[in-house]
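Data availability (excerpt). The following record was deposited with the supplementary files.
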Amino acid sequence: MSERRPLGANYRKLFASATAANLGDGLMSVALVWLASAVTRDAMLIALVGVAGRIPWLVFSLPAGVISDRFDRRKLVASMDVCRFVVVAGLGLLVLRYQTQLPTPEQLAAGAPEPSSGPLLVTALCVASVLLGCAEVLRDNTAQTLMPAVVERDQLEKANGRMWASETTMNSFVGPALGGVLITVALAVPFLLNAGLLAVSAALVFALAGSFAAQGAERAGGRTRIDWKGEIAEGFGWLWNHRLIRTLAILLGVLNLLSNLAFATSVLFVQEVLGLFEGWQFALVTTGFAVGAVIGSLLAERISKRLSPGTALLVSIVGMGVGLLLMALVPWAPAFWVCGVAEGVFVVLWNVITVSLRQRLIPDRLLGRVNSVYRFFGWGTIAIGTALGGVLVGLGENVVSRDWALRGVFVLAGLGHLALLGYARREANSETIAAAEAAATA
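Predicted structure:
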């Protein structure tokens, strides 16, 4: 029945909003790192820009969950898009002012002096990344809590799968490819275009019909003080006492740490190991992930049913680990792209299964808070992995060649994935998942 029933007008608006916002994020994913690589070749400074955007997941995730459960979720999502519009537009204007003074990454790699505006631009990138990260934490956490209010429970895999397909296509395929082309026109263009897309996204979310406050939530509205400690503790306690959700949060945290250990300096890997110094080449070689993610999002529901959810999660971990190892050991652009396809399939398979499980298992009144605790564990480690990746490359090139320092973080990340299999098989198997779902509907 869920295959034939339409997902509804609200879902179409939410889907269009996510498409616009993620197209903008895809543009930024290329523009930010390319701007950083045109300012400095220091792996740790480039990683610092990434860390700045991930710190909010460590310090703001838990309060964001409380806010998601206390206020109208539709207004929160749209308001965060407005905030991101302001920050991105300001950053775009700053880049427009200085873009003619910047050398190309290839010129810097060949020994050209770093631009005098470099410290200002690195600082601006870090500040903007922190502000955007804070808005993203609240926006993304709240957006996931909207879905159960938009579609029926038995449509969640279908709705999430389509959403992942669109988000990943825009974020990792269309956006980066378009960003790579636009960089050759002017470095400020991706930033300014993203600002316009965020404005469209905000308008679409504001247009959602209905009420989107958590069921049974006390509407603060400035009248009721928020018991931050108590409400965070309630969400934390629920997650920690739920064996399956706790396990998935821990696994996601370690997986994200390992992946970002590798990808923190991927722009340098693509430029110096693969020899691709054009913006469009960088964008093109990273589209493999997007292609795989689209495939994974379309097949995730079918794969999960065919293999069972627990087996599908184990296959995902193996696939991600092997893909990272091959990226390091076969440093050839087409091979890197093919490995990216595999990574995309397995990452989205993991995400569709685990997000749908959370939406079914967590009570609506706690969904925002438990999601925020889950993301605190699962996404907070991204900042740690990103920082550690930059440090390891910086230290590694004093021991081995720069080439192998950049490859080595991929090797460590791949081996780390495979080391998680025993824990995942014991704690997140199909029997555990079935028992958790049965208990939630009892």
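Summary of structural features: The mean pLDDT is 86.
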